[in-house]
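can u do me a favor
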């Protein structure tokens, strides 16, 4: 594993790792319960996973994505190659509505559990989300964060961290 010198990039790396761990738990739930076999949404582990999806996944596609799009994609495009951030941006635009749909299905399940129909929707959306988001994070980890670590200097760290804190506080 590479060493990132900027703290802001290490923070993003940690958010990626947390998201991958969450997606792995989601994948396990989807594997244990096929599309026609809704789990009990009030069961301890399932309820905890649903709560975390509502918060962590919701934050990922708002704050994390917004920060990358506003502050990092333009820097990468200037410093290296506009193709890569263009592709990552397109992936954000595909993943954002999937995450929104999944979070809405979680909210409904917290109210009244999963019906066969809502679980079928959750299953299909969840599978597509896991597939796309895992691949997306792998790409950012392999090329994007290490590339930024070369483009950015130590003086960029504090202003970028402040900008991210501001997005999260908004
Ligand atoms: Fe990211």
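np, heres the sequence
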């Amino acid at each position: 594993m590479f060493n990132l010198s900027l703290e802001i990039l290490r923070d993003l790396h940690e958010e990626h790792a947390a998201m991958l761990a969450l997606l792995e738990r989601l994948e396990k739930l989807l594997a244990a319960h096929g599309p026609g076999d809704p789990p009990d949404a009030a069961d301890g582990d399932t309820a905890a996973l649903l709560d975390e999806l509502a918060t962590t996944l919701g934050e990922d596609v708002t704050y994390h994505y917004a920060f990358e799009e506003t502050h990092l994609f333009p820097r990468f495009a200037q410093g290296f190659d506009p193709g890569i951030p263009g592709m990552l941006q397109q992936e954000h635009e595909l993943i954002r509505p999937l995450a929104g749909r999944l979070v809405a299905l979680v909210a409904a399940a917290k109210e009244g559990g999963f019906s066969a129909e809502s679980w079928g929707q959750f299953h299909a959306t969840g599978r597509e989300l896991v597939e796309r988001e895992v691949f997306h994070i792998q790409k950012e980890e392999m090329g994007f964060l290490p590339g930024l670590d070369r483009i950015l200097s130590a003086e960029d760290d504090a202003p970028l961290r402040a900008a991210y804190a501001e997005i999260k506080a908004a």
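The chain has one domain: 7-169. hope that helps!!
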